[in-house]
Amino acid sequence: MRVSTTGGNARTTVFAPRIDELLRKYRGADLFRLDKDTVGIADPHLISAIMTSRPASDAERPTFKPLWGQTISRPESTAVMRAVGQDVRVALKKPDAGRVDLSGEWPHVGHVYLRDLIFSQDPLRLRTLLDRRLEWTTLLTRAVITAGSALPGWPPPEAPLSHLGKLTTEAKGYHAKFRAMGLYRRTSAPVCFTVSQLVANAIWLGAPFDEGTANRDIIHESLRLLPVSWNLLRFASPEFGVLDDRIGPDDDILMLPLLSHRDPAVWEDPDEFRPERWASLDPDHQLGYLPFGHISERCWGRHMVLPLAERLLDMFREGGYRVDPAQTEAKVPLAGLFGVTKMKITR
Ligand code: HEM
């Protein structure tokens, strides 16, 4: 396990062995074989060529991949995204929660804050879907949804729920409710999980922040060093071999922003946390920078992620919080969401 230094502070980030190996062996490489039928790619140009060669298939979509074997249609995904977008806009208009205490273990504390900010009016059976423990197993999630869909006592249509909650309660009958609850989970969970992870990473890497440093620059820089979404998967496809003859017809492709974000050919001082670099860079058009995916399939949620993360960073900066000085190390496990765990914030 390698210990890597972070920024100008005395903290170190400890990567899981597999991540550490990827960084050590393949940073600056273009294409490499990860196993007999998976090829890894770190080269920004090749990543771009792969991403534009064909649209993502249903199974490759992180948020709206099929729900228990059933495709999620475009109207369904658009409807839930619109609803959650409205909920985030409403939440952002709420007065700053001066009374909220952000101290404790992150990203958990950030997750709970966002859940309560955005979805507090929803019934318990929906809010339970945002419980971090459901990450452990999809079987548990399914059990919660099965029980929630079957139980009587859903709120009436006029109840003051979130837009997403309303959409879910409007579904009629067990099967429709079951699906609607699955979609509620798919759409609400990323808001709390990804944003709290992103903010935890930013604080770990950079706090205390210089007064003049913009939150946006802090966010872009932390997404560069600790990209919450650290890999992009595309299943084997005939288009890929045409782009590079080292890619066989059965090879799946794992594109690695984790590596392209630290490529020394692209970035000056690639391991340094330097938010000021973004003063002269455009995050939407920066070669090799894909925290929200490639321009051809960019994340639908990024417009809500950024203001929510900025709000949390404002609260952290204005509330006099700091990383517990006794904590000098944080672990980054090999997980779907990339970032530090068990970071302690104090005042
Ligand atoms: C820090 C926060 C987030 C990051 C870093 C992130 C990253 C990404 C990335 C890298 C992709 C492209 C995936 C690919 O091409 O394979 C993507 C797509 C997408 N993201 Fe996000 N995302 C975040 C938050 C969210 C949130 C909060 C939502 C929804 C509420 C969301 C919804 C989507 C959707 C709908 C897509 C299109 C593909 C699909 O249907 O799944 N994202 N995101």
Topology:
Blueprint: E1 3-5, E2 12-15, H1 17-26, E3 31-35, E4 38-41, H2 44-53, H3 74-93, E5 104-106, H4 108-119, H5 124-127, H6 138-150, H7 163-169, H8 173-206, H9 215-225, E6 232-234, H10 238-243, E7 252-255, H11 257-260, H12 302-318, E8 322-323, E9 329-332, E10 343-346
Parallel strand pairs: 2-9, 4-7
Antiparallel strand pairs: 1-2, 3-4, 5-10, 6-7, 8-10
Helix pairs in contact: 3-8, 3-12, 4-8, 6-8, 7-8, 8-9, 8-12
The structure holds protoporphyrin IX containing FE.
Order the strands across the largest sheet as they lie in space: 3-4-7-6
- The helix/strand series, from N terminus to C terminus, equals EEHEEHHEHHHHHHEHEHHEEE
What is the level 1 CATH name?
Mainly Alpha
Stated plainly, the CATH topology is called Cytochrome p450
Distance between the termini: 31 Å
Helix content: 40-55%
Strand content: 5-15%
Q: What hetero molecules are bound to the protein chains? A: protoporphyrin IX containing FE
Average the pLDDT over all residues and give the rounded result: 94
The main pleated sheet reads as: 4 strands, mixed
The number of helical elements comes to: 12
Which superfamily, in CATH terms, is the homologous superfamily? Cytochrome P450
Supply the number of structural domains: 1
In total, the number of strands is 10
Structural class: alpha+beta
